Amino acid sequence: MIEAVGLTKRYGAKTAVYNLSFQVRPGAVTGFLGPNGSGKSTTMRMILGLDRPTAGHVTIGGHPFRNLPNAPRLVGALLDAKAVHGGRSARQHLLSLAQLSGIPARRVDEVLGVVGLQNVAKKRSKGFSLGMGQRLGIAAALLGDPQVLLFDEPVNGLDPEGILWVRNLMRQLAAEGRTVFVSSHLMSEMALTADHLIVIGRGQLLADMSVKDFISYNSADFARVRVAQGAPEAREKLTAALSEAGGQVLPETDGALRVTGLPLPRISDLAHEADVRLWELSPHQASLEEAYMRMTQAAVDYRSTADQRAGLQQPAYGPYGGAPGGFAGPAGYPGPGGAPGALPGFTAPPPPQPAGPGAPPARRTGRQPVRGAACRTAAPAPAPQQPAAVPVPQQPAAVPAQGAVPPTPAPQAPPAPQAAPRPPRPRRPRARRPRTGRRRPPPT
Ligand SMILES: Nc1ncnc2c1ncn2[C@@H]1O[C@H](COP(=O)(O)OP(=O)(O)OP(=O)(O)O)[C@@H](O)[C@H]1O
């Protein structure tokens, strides 16, 4: 098991990870999610003893990584697949790692086979594609047949077959009772691979819960209702009946209705009472991607200037408020779509607040390259001695998870000393040239 307690990492003025506490249990795939720059890699480096926490601690099986006896056989990691000597072949690279860790050479050929690189084992790795490099990094992680595995974006650059292979590999490793901690930005993939999720935003814990709970806490379940074709008056009648009963009803583009705030049996009864024949009444759940986007909107640091969204809050839509896409307001929530008395399971949490005027993202300075295998014994970065000023990320309005550590309010950074504003310079009137009445000659 991996256990982090109050883990904090500062790089100069930048707080990459703040007061992070979580556990990664064996026998499950735990997904590690968060927007770009939210501190996932930093956390993984601290778990592997490659970065020293500024505060807090993290252990594997009860010991800090550096105190683990024979760490490479206990822990395997893929952090940066490109951190390979390009002049070495895949086999040579793995062989050197194996020799450093006392792992028998035959294991090298085994893992080359597992990752499907046996036919290019003698090729220099500098000629490898992104996906081949990724496979080599995974081979390095598996080399010591470890009980604890960390993968930082393992499917990066893999083709669909490779992605499926990684998914099955992760699931198999977890089924064997190993601890599998994997970060990814591919939500659809995480939904299929992970059992449990740890979500961070701006270095702080946002959620620690099962994938299923994460989706239902952070998205609106809804019912799709379709009346018999060619009966617009029946549709209107049903809309009125459902709204009167406290449901939020939105028209869908194909003529169906999206209903939140009412359970399916109640919708069925109301349709029956209104004498409306239904052709469809089905439950729907939002995807992990929708739930993730909803939760992390306020913690996104890097957004395209072409992206007009100020969040996933959508404008009120139709006479009942709310918005298409499952993000209708929850029961009792003052905003579009809210309806008192709406039932659990058919409501969404309050929409996340748009990101506040947080500090601009700090530039990454002197980031240390990290090798692909955990058996690397890099000297730890000295913990920077910083004042305890921490820029506080604005928390999205997330539902606190069972077992999640509620983010502790971070101390406010004192305002940077400002130079006294200069008085505006008086503008000199521009001397006007006297008009001569002559025109410029046309260009030749
Ligand atoms: N060595 C370093 N020196 C200074 N700042 C750093 C260093 N390493 C990371 N950071 C900063 O810490 C923050 C967290 O970075 P980190 O790489 O952990 O995020 P991440 O969640 O892994 O991002 P991504 O999803 O883009 O890989 C970023 O703002 C980053 O610039």
Question: If you had to describe this structure to a student in words, what would you say it looks like?
Answer:
With 444 residues, this protein is an alpha/beta fold. It has eleven helices and 13 strands. It folds into two domains: 2-216, 3-Layer(aba) Sandwich (Rossmann fold); 222-284 and 313-351. A hairpin with a 5-residue loop joins strand 11 and strand 12. The strands form three sheets. A six-stranded mixed sheet has the order 5-6-7-3-8-9. The chain has a four-stranded antiparallel sheet with strand order 11-12-10-13, covered by helices on one side. Residues 11, 14, 16, 34, 36-42, 361-362, 364-368 line the site of adenosine-5'-triphosphate.
- The name of the CATH architecture of the largest domain is 3-Layer(aba) Sandwich
Which percent bin holds the helix content? 10-25%
Number of strands: 13
What is CATH's topology name of the largest domain? Rossmann fold
Q: Which radius of gyration do the C-alpha atoms yield?
A: 28 Å
Q: What is the CA–CA distance across the termini?
A: 81 Å
The level 1 CATH classification of the largest domain is: Alpha Beta
Work out the count of structural domains. 2
The low-pLDDT segments are 310-423
> What is the CATH superfamily of the largest domain?
P-loop containing nucleotide triphosphate hydrolases
Mean pLDDT: 74
Count of DSSP helices? 11
Most strands sheet:
6 strands, mixed
- Label the overall shape: elongated
Biased composition (Gly residues): 328-340
Pfam families: ABC_tran
GO molecular function, one term: ATP binding
Family: Belongs to the ABC transporter superfamily.
